[in-house]
């Protein structure tokens, strides 16, 4: 019976040892899964933080660009509406005659005489029944008077002047 009791004690010890190792293994797996869950939560918080910082950076950059554009617009508008007053006590002042400060070409009271002449000539041609206008003298072909051909004696007796025939 001693032997049977010893075998039983060894068998119980083996069962207890397997049960303890199984419980310890389960406890380690539970701890590892808890650590994985905490790591996933930390990663989720970090991703949210990165998204928030990206949005804040974009909004900050947008605010800086809009402020810069507003400043340039204000400066351009103030330069457009103000002029530097001449003189020894020069200062920036608003000028009421901003648009008239730039000299404009004088509008003639009467049309240009040359233009009037051209219009009169055009009206005359139209009145004459749309005839072709006469060609001015300087554009006509010159007619030169013909010079008389001199008769000369043929001293060598042949009719060829150049000696080719």
What do these coordinates show?
This protein is mostly helical and 165 residues long. It contains two helices and two strands, in the order H-E-E-H. It has a two-stranded antiparallel ribbon. A hairpin with a 7-residue loop joins strand 1 and strand 2. The chain starts with a helix and ends in a 38-residue tail after the last helix.
Please describe the topology of this protein:
Blueprint: H1 2-81, E1 82-84, E2 92-94, H2 113-127
Antiparallel strand pairs: 1-2
How is this structure best summarized?
The chain is mainly α and 165 residues long.
Key features of this structure:
mainly alpha, 165 residues, 2 helices
Number of helical segments? 2
Helix content: 55-70%
For the terminal residues, how far apart are their CA atoms? 166 Å
Rg, Å, rounded:
57 Å
Q: Strand-and-helix sequence, N→C? A: HEEH
Strand content: under 5%
The profile of the biggest β sheet is:
2 strands, antiparallel
Strand order of the largest sheet: 1-2
Shape label: elongated
Q: Please, what is the average pLDDT?
A: 77
Q: Can you count the beta strands?
A: 2
Helix/sheet category: mainly alpha
Low-pLDDT runs: none
């Amino acid at each position: 019976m001693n032997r049977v009791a010893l075998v039983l004690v060894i068998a119980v010890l083996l069962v207890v040892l397997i049960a303890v190792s199984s419980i310890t293994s389960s406890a380690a797996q539970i701890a590892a899964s808890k650590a994985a869950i905490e790591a996933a939560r930390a990663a989720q918080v970090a991703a949210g933080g990165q998204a928030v910082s990206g949005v804040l950076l974009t909004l900050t950059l947008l605010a800086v660009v809009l402020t810069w554009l507003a400043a340039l617009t204000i400066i351009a508008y103030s330069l457009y509406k103000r002029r530097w007053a001449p003189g020894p006590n020069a200062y920036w002042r608003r000028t009421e005659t901003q648009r008239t400060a730039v000299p404009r070409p004088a509008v003639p009271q009467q049309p240009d005489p040359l233009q009037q002449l051209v219009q009169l000539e055009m009206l005359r041609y139209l009145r004459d029944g749309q005839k072709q206008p006469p060609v001015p003298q300087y554009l006509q072909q010159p007619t030169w008077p013909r010079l008389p051909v001199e008769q000369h004696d043929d001293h060598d007796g042949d009719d060829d002047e150049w000696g080719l025939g």
